Amino acid sequence: MSPVAITLLVIVIVLAIIIAVLYFLGKKAQKKQAEQQELKKQYSSHTTMARLCPYCQNKLEVLCKGTHGASYVKCSQCGEQVFFPPVTFRISKSFRI
Fold first, then answer.
1. pLDDT digits (tens, 9 = 90+) for 51-91
2. How far is CA 97 from CA 49, 51, 65, 88, 94, in A?
């Protein structure tokens, strides 16, 4: 084979490998994007709750719909360590619109 043919063959093989890698990376990115969209749909809501510092009333956290465990948070304004109990957002069965 001539050197030009070998060079062209190598270029074609490298391009095929690059296309295959980009294809699989694109599939992986699509899966992650679909997962993020599902999580966004699952946890997006107009139900939000602000956790306030009991000492200075500074807003420490904003919780969105979902289940949140107990947490300790240090207030950035007064420096106190604040404990927040677990929170679960749910619609009561007795609630009627």
1. 788 888 888 776 656 656 777 778 888 888 888 777 766 66
2. 21, 27, 19, 21, 10
DSSP state of 87: E
3 state DSSP class of 72: strand
For residue 20, is pLDDT > 90?
yes
Q: In 1-97, where does DSSP find H-type helix?
A: 3-43
CA distance 56 to 79: 10
Highest mean pLDDT among 2-11, 23-32, 58-67: 2-11
- Tokens 């069965």 label which residue? 93
DSSP strand pairing (67-68 vs 71-74)? unpaired
Six-digit token pair at 84? 């927040």
Q: How far is CA 16 from CA 8, 12, 23, 26, 64, in A?
A: 12, 6, 10, 15, 46
